[in-house]
Amino acid sequence: MPTSEPIDIFKERLKAARALRGLNQAELAAKAGLPPASVSHFESGPRKPSFDNLKALATALDVTTDYLLGRADTPEASAATVGRLHRDLGKLTEQDLKLATEFVDLLVKRGIKEGE
Amino acid sequence: MPTSEPIDIFKERLKAARALRGLNQAELAAKAGLPPASVSHFESGPRKPSFDNLKALATALDVTTDYLLGRADTPEASAATVGRLHRDLGKLTEQDLKLATEFVDLLVKRGIKEGE
DNA sequence: ATGGAACTTGACGGTTTCGCCAATCCAAGT
DNA sequence: ACTTGGATTGGCGAAACCGTCAAGTTCCAT
């Protein structure tokens, strides 16, 4: 069951994405061009980023804004990679799409225990 | 000289996405739970949407926020076609993602020669 | 126990968006 | 010419975010 109630997905996602990149708040802040305290406010306080800061954070972390916003479930390794793959999916025939689905399904199941 | 840089991509994208759905500002506003004037402000004025309103707009239009923000090139939100697959991609490890990419790449190339 | 690094929290004034309303413009259609 | 529906624009107070700073916490290493 989806234990994570949507208390504040953004905070979680931001922290997760930052951890994924192995950055501390100050480093992320530098990359995104904003003060360290702001990052902390986003992760712990009630603040939500503005239009521009959201973009800056997503770019600095190389994740989609949809992920940060909780609109997409993808931990989003590389936006470019996933983007290309997704674009290519559109070129597939119906049955090839099914093939691809099965293949990915396999990978997912196989990779679950290798979480970390 | 990249002077041709759109001054405000968001405005364009918002208008485009709305047109794509065949909605007028009032209708979009209703769907997103906003006053019609706000939509107009976004499309024509200097205002940029807040965190919550950005989400609302993207949801109402069924596009990614990355698209609206100009961080992605395709509206590509309605993952209805490849929904499950796209969702699963997020669960893949970096290297499995690469595998999947190659696999799909193969299918695409193979499918092209077989006509449509 | 002392020190430092990472992070949290609270406050401040300044800026921007918020929702709302009213006025206005514009391109039809009648 | 007049009206109508869609869109633009501007002003209003309220609310939220902004960057900044200063103190506080927690935890780890010396």
UniProtKB/TrEMBL annotation, chains A, B:
Classification via InterPro entries: Cro/C1-type_HTH, Lambda_DNA-bd_dom_sf, Rad_response_metalloprotease
Stretches assigned to the HTH cro/C1-type domain: 14-68
GO molecular function: DNA binding
One Pfam short name: HTH_3
Protein name, entry field: Helix-turn-helix domain-containing protein
Native source organism of the sequence: Bradyrhizobium cajani
